């Protein structure tokens, strides 16, 4: 049993090092959010045993969670580079006809040959019209994580 307990500790350390090395590898990636390994205790008890007197049987990785804390905002020479201060994501579509929605905090944007605003992977920036008070003209509420049935893909008229 002690071998198993030690093995769970080694597996946990390996997962923690993996999350840390991923954080280090992506330190220069725009919009990257660091991850943290979270662990839990393993207890082996029977229904007849008092759980407060049982000895732990190791640790288990409960999950690797992204940390959505505010990062540093740096200026750039690209007029279309955007940053989000606080909570939120940019909404993207993989293609003009795609029903799939992609979310990112990477605001490195540019204009493609057809004058659409795209990210570095060529995904199209989705925008929603707002009134002068900043209220979105959407058919549904953003609070329940659903979006308007009509998406607006931003196409530049004068850029490029």
What is the element layout, followed by pairings?
Elements: H1 2-25, E1 35-43, E2 56-66, E3 90-93, E4 102-104, E5 110-111, E6 117-118, E7 124-127, E8 152-153
Antiparallel strand pairs: 1-2, 3-4, 3-7, 5-6, 7-8
How would you characterize the overall build of this protein?
- This protein is of the alpha+beta class.
- The chain has two domains: 2-66, no CATH class; 72-160, no CATH class.
- The chain is 15% helix and 23% strand.
- It is built from one helix and eight strands; from the N terminus they run αββββββββ.
- The protein has one helix at 2-25, and strands spanning 35-43, 56-66, 90-93, 102-104, 110-111, 117-118, 124-127, 152-153.
- The strands form three sheets. Strands 4-3-7-8 form a four-stranded antiparallel β-sheet, with no helix packed on it. It has a two-stranded antiparallel sheet with strand order 1-2. Strands 5-6 form a two-stranded antiparallel ribbon.
- The N and C termini lie far apart (67 Å).
- Residues 140-150 have low confidence and may be disordered.
Give the ordered list of helices and strands: HEEEEEEEE
The strand order across the widest sheet is: 4-3-7-8
Model regions low in confidence, pLDDT < 50 over at least 5 residues: 140-150
Whole-angstrom Rg: 23 Å
- Helix count equals 1
Euclidean distance between termini CA atoms: 67 Å
Q: Give the helix level as a range of percent.
A: 10-25%
The overall strand count is: 8
- When the domains are counted, the total is 2
Strand content: 15-25%
Q: Choose one word for the global shape.
A: elongated
> Roughly what is the average pLDDT, rounded to an integer?
77
Class derived from helix and strand content = alpha+beta
Instruction: Report the major sheet.
Output: 4 strands, antiparallel
